[in-house]
Amino acid sequence: MTAVPAITLSEAERLDAEDVLGHFRTRFVEPADAGIVAYLDGNSLGRPPKATLERWSALGRGEWGTRLIRAWSEGWMELPEQIGDRLGQAALGAAPGQVVIADSTSVCLYKLLRAAVAMRPGRTEIVTDRHNFPTDNYVVQGIAAELGLTVRWIDTDPDGGVSVDQVAAELSERTAVVTLSHVAYRSAWIADLPGITAAAHAQGALVVWDLCHSVGSIPVELDADGVDFAVGCSYKFLNGGPGAPAFVYVRAEHQEQFRQPVWGWMGGADPFAMEHGYQPATGIRRALSGTPPITGMVGVDEGVKLVAEAGIQRIREKAVALGEMVIGLADEWLSPLGVRVASPREAGRRGGHVTLARDDAPDLAKRLIDAGVVIDFRPPDGIRVGLSPLTTGFAETWRAMEKFRRLS
Questions:
Q1: Is the pLDDT of residue 6 over 90?
Q2: Whether the Cβ atoms of residue 354 and residue 324 lie closer than 8 Å to each other
Q3: Which domain-ending residue is among 309, 344, 363?
Q4: Annotated catalytic residue: which of 247, 384, 394, 404?
Q5: What is the per-residue pLDDT across 210-226, written as a single tens digit (0 to 9) for each?
Q6: Which pairs with CB-CB distance under 8 Å and at least 24 residues apart come from 315-321?
Q7: In a domain, 70, yes or no
Q8: What is the largest CA-CA distance in the chain?
């Protein structure tokens, strides 16, 4: 293992001065709590954009407050698809008509997995990662119990993630669906999305990708990489707000066959016909179920606009630079104190956070938060340092790491 050189505070301040994305920090609400040294948990909940607060106010006073129910026919009905198309272009590499803003991540994942299994009749297995995010595994377990399927669990290194070879070893003519996270929530390991997708397709299986820790942080090319289905939240790097709705991607070639299990009037061919029998809408809109959450959707819209303006490639470049700085400081300051880097050291394999691990991480995480360094703890021993390029500064992060050293 080669240690990454640490930088000084003055060097971090120089990086802030040269940061082409630095001005975006002024577009977000500053926390009123003067005790916050650094907010490094944007990989769990992004900070609020000022434009979102203005949009909510306009929504309450204008569209909702003045137009009332008429606003549904004056633009609200089209928002799930319109925002989905903007998100697809800005961050997902998806052509129009394949992304829609819908329900929570768990509900969207359930819809996609059930639909994917139905598209592979006679196949009886789902392949996934045992260390995937809990909600993903709970949804998989529930569907397996519901349909009498077998789950083939891949045991991955918690400090790394799933590989193409590991997936290939579990694939067979019995595999209906492979479902994995593109970026591991613990370690930030970036899976080989195109390689794994191709391996699954070679066995006739479909793939459902969880992009919760990818979207708005690293470039994704869903169309070019042949992805079948994808889901992701909007309240992390997209800064959509707490509980903001998730998105669904359904590849155009699958949409006619796609039959999601939660039939609701907004996913029907003509919601206001009030017909007794359900007929799915054409295209991506059939992924919807109930009434779209407009207040949440406008938050997603503003977050997507910021990502589009900044450019996903520039966002990625800054995330890599921040991650390299954190690892360098951890090597020099924290490694002698028993802290190890529990994320990939290769920048091309690391997403938008760096996990630092030590046995007393639960207590250490609490001390950090109490001291104004807002991070999060993930069992058994991980402290995630979340690096959100639109809101995280280099000097801010340097000071947080210095506080980490003092408290360790």
A1: no
A2: no
A3: 309
A4: 384
A5: 999 999 999 999 999 99
A6: 315/21, 315/216, 315/217, 315/237, 315/389, 315/390, 316/217, 316/218, 316/219, 316/389, 318/19, 318/21, 318/389, 319/217, 319/218, 319/351, 319/352, 319/387, 319/389, 320/347, 320/350, 321/15, 321/394
A7: no
A8: 69
Q: Is 16 a catalytic residue?
A: no
Average pLDDT over residues 324-338: 97
Q: Do both 285 and 322 map to the same domain? A: no
Residues 88 and 163 in one domain: yes
Q: Answer whether residue 91 shows pLDDT above 70.
A: yes
- Domain assignment of residue 391, given as a range: 9-49+312-407
CATH code for position 29: 3.90.1150.10
Catalytic annotation on 25?
no
Query: Residues 17, 23, 27, 28: is their CA dihedral positive or negative?
Result: negative
Catalytic position from the list 55, 114, 236, 358 = 236
261, 283, 309: which is the final residue of a domain? 309
235 among known catalytic residues = yes
Considering 110, 133, 185, 404, which one is annotated as catalytic?
Answer: 133
Peptide bond just before 48 cis, omega within 30 deg: no
Tally of domains within the chain: 2
230 in the same domain as 320: no
